[in-house]
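Notes, p. 3: input format for complexes.
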Amino acid sequence: MRSFILLGLVAVSLQAQQKPAQPSGPIGAWTPVPELPGMGRAIDIPATTARRQALLARLGKGTVLIPAAHERDLEVDYLQDNDFRQHNTFFYFTQLETQDAWLLMTADGAGGSEVVLFLPPRVPMRERWTGVRLGPDSIAARLTGIATVLPTDSLDRRLRRARGPLYLPLDVTTEHETRIRDLVYSGRDVRNIRPVVDSMRLVKDAEELGRLRMAVTISAMGHVAAMRAARPGMGEYEIEAAFESEVRRQGADRLGYPSIVGSGINGTTLHYDTSRRQTADGDIVVIDAAAEYGQYTADITRSWPVNGKFTPRQKEIYDLVLGSQQAAIDAVRPGIRMATLDTIARNYMKTNSGKLCGESSCDRYFIHGLGHWIGMDVHDVGDYSTPLAPGMAFTIEPGIYIPEEGFGVRIEDDILVTDTGHELLSAGAPRTTEEIEKVMREARKKK
Ligand code: GLY
Ligand code: MN
Ligand code: MN
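Output follows (447 residues plus manganese (II) ion):
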């Protein structure tokens, strides 16, 4: 995961906004695609076509070449979970979760365009190991909505014919990609496509929001499951397991990032992810964990007493963090900037600290920025100076971490900018001390 804290479909989520989500059986089941037994979800052809057209219209003239990710090697890589995750840029324009593919898009400068998908040929012997793969044939054309699908070995011939600037993703995904390196050093007019794609990704379309909402809804359910499972004396790893088991049960593809479950003093380490300590009665647990669904990830943090009841001191600090978060959330609307929200949250903390943290205000314990964009990356792409606009999604996550008192509190929610203001996507995870204590109390009664 990149640096921690940078700055700081669906109908199910409507219900989740109104009351804490209750685990109620899988909601994230895959739509089976018979031709792709190992792959899963259907591709939204209108959405991906619109993204490709929007990109080409913005470029006017030129050729775009985007590689897919490659399979990782079980013998060489230290894999933790799924061994394949598509590159985000390729996924954005295709939603195709297949290996070794290439997408070529050309705008001729006169309003005409061409899109070609290149796929390696199928190898039946290898498919005994990997499962069925998509090949360069009519099935691929039908599933992707890209009419022209060719074998990869015809790509270089096409590239030689391409006129105008050549746009490539020049980033970590292509630094070891030989074909990209050769093009960069070929003397042609090569430009980085990432800034344009990143600005498109900053404003989520309706199809993306369906995926993001699902990731957030599932994650909120995981947080509820962790609260319900917790008992003093449990290992942090057991609480982590309760979260992760629930999100997988609900259809999460994988975790959005390594789960952070820090109890007591560990809750003051922003990036604590070893989860080995045994909790003790009186601890606050900071759990920053989220699911990835359909390539999109949530990012939610809750902080709660492992014994189910906040002490007066813990509640005072908690309510200060919550008030600061709410002040920033209330200000979210189109036109405002992330930096302004950060100032609002910090000012709230300064003004309302009283003597809670001694002579100076508690904001000295708020040691990171307020939030960051979310999407296909947990710290998603996009320019932070951009004024907020409908369709942008980000976190608001103030915290107070007091190592000398052995506890920290972070509250992190996922916000969507709407036409008139905002929507709290992660409202399904209990947020006030009363809501949290109620969920924990009720779970104890049932056992
Ligand atoms: N979960 C990482 C972050 O909050 O930025
Ligand atoms: Mn975050
Ligand atoms: Mn987080």
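Confidence is low (pLDDT under 50) at residues 1-24.
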